[in-house]
Amino acid sequence: MKQTNLKIDINSPHYRVCLYRICAKPFMTTRGRIYCSDKCADNDYNLTRKLKKMKLARQNEKFDEEDLINVLSDPKPQEQFVTDFSNIDEEKVKKNIELLSKLTIDKYDGTVYNLRDLEMLGIDFQHHSYSYPLCNTKNSNNILFGEYETFLINPTQILIYYKNR
Q1: What is the pLDDT of residue 56?
Q2: Rounded CA gap, 52 and 127, in Å?
Q3: Distance (Å, rounded) from C-alpha 47 to C-alpha 53?
Q4: Weakest mean pLDDT among 91-100, 118-127, 129-138
Q5: What are 108-112's contacts with CB under 8 Å, separation 24+?
Q6: Is 157:114 a contact under the CB 8 Å cutoff?
Q7: Mean pLDDT, all residues of the chain
């Protein structure tokens, strides 16, 4: 979004305060915008959707919107993935690949498995061939085990693809 070159003037009819609750930054506009940027508009839209989902899930519980905003604006750091491969045991990586090869995986769409079930089979997600951060996400990585790609799609489920289709 193109910013205007107007100086902030509280008395001006073009003066606004960003409606995204976490931002609330003052700005000037001549186009009737209600958010200071497209990013704030997207974040507010996503926050509103999350709040609606939480309200539907918690209809019988008391819901405090401010607590959710605090949690979303200051997320807890997720578990860090291994980036130093010097201490990865190649035997464990081979064992993980062998265990993944025994699973039934759809060759076009991949297959979703319960994370706990995979860990109970003996798959160790700390020992892998390679991992890289996913774009458009925070603290989320794609983990590769040889020809197998894994994506955490929610806290309890993992999507597994076989790369050589």
Answers
A1: 62
A2: 38
A3: 10
A4: 129-138
A5: 108/165, 110/149, 110/159, 110/160, 110/161, 110/162, 111/159, 111/160, 112/153, 112/157, 112/158, 112/159, 112/160
A6: yes
A7: 76
HEC states along the chain? CCCCCCCCCCCCCCEEECCCCCCCCEEECCCCCCCCCHHHHHHHHHHHHHHHHHHHHCCCCCCCHHHHHHHHHCCCCCCCCCCCHHHCCHHHHHHHHHHHHCCCCCCCCCEEEEHHHHHHHCCCCCCCCEEEECCCCCCCEEEEECCEEEEEEECCEEEEEECCC
- The model's pLDDT over 32-88, given as tens digits with 9 standing for 90+, comes to 788 888 998 898 888 888 777 766 655 545 545 555 555 455 444 443 444 445 556
